[in-house]
Amino acid sequence: MNRIGFIGLGNMGLPMAVNLKNQGLEVKAYDLSEEAKVKAIQSGIEVKNSIQETSTSIDALITMLPNDSAVEEVYLNSSLLDDLAKTTLIIDSSTISPETSKRVANRASKVGISMLDAPVSGGVKGAEDGTLSFIVGGEDKDLVKASSLFDIMGSNTFHAGDSGSGQIAKLCNNMLLAIHMCGTAETIAMGVKNGLDPEVLSEIMKKSSGGNWSLEKYNPYPGVMKDAPASKNYSGGFLNLLMLKDLSLAQELASLSNSETPMGKLAKELYEELNNQGIGDLDFSSIQKRYMN
Ligand code: NAD
Fold first, then answer.
1. Whether pTM exceeds 0.90
2. Theoretical Cys-Cys bridge with 157: which of 31, 84, 150, 272, CB 3.0 to 4.6 Å?
3. What is the DSSP letter of 239?
4. Is any atom of ligand 1 closer than 6 Å to the C-beta of 7?
5. Structure letter (DSSP) for residue 31
6. How many angstroms does the Cα of residue 66 sit away from the middle of ligand 1?
């Protein structure tokens, strides 16, 4: 796996492609956006003019696209699957619905091409530092082939199950993340309104049975953690609009599988509120703002 085609050079895709290139792999890449192409060239990436040019003579094609429709556009509404060499392994790291992911994998398999769904956790910092977690769905043999790439771009690889399972596990994780972030924010706000110091309260809960990842790594209350987005006006990090996208995909999955998810539904409504207020581009811990009036 030395020759890589990379499509989607946004906040996540560009640093991932750069890490592959810095490890000596041959990377050629493509993005629709002129701005993304310019940034990629400035980062030393060989940028091609089309998906076709990007996907010839490669061992693996990695896609890091924003949503289902972009993934459908690239794989289903083009001749890409017919044009790819049968030996090329497709790795789609976009977060999309498991249904779309399985549809693309089935179509690829009909022309003899293997695909892994490999959404990631770890955010832009994880992409830059090469410490992402890859949550993978697909066949063992393909995961083994791709593992050297996952090891460059990340520090954990999980095999969730068959095709589409990576997306299912990723949506489960992000639904739980949203739920504990919302719970953490409203709890700290209640403590503060009753005279507690947010830092002292956070420390108590972190070490007690309320402890969770949001308290440990990503405190939503401004000033409690110096490096958290909350202490930087909620800039950077994982955007509200992306969390809303994931919660919407999780609700679709819940509905298709007849799963009861009242907490996930409420979390989605809370993130819808933030997006309707025009703060979709703030970090998802800005849910705290809702409780601070
Ligand atoms: P982004 O919007 O910054 O980048 C996506 C890129 O894809 C853009 O540059 C866009 O121009 C390009 N693109 C869109 N359609 C295209 C097409 N048809 N052909 C070629 N290029 C196309 O998004 P991102 O933050 O890099 O996220 C990418 C994926 O990773 C999303 O599915 C997101 O949910 C997931 N993700 C993001 C984060 C995060 O913190 N940003 C964390 C984990 C997972």
1. yes
2. 150
3. B
4. yes
5. -
6. 4
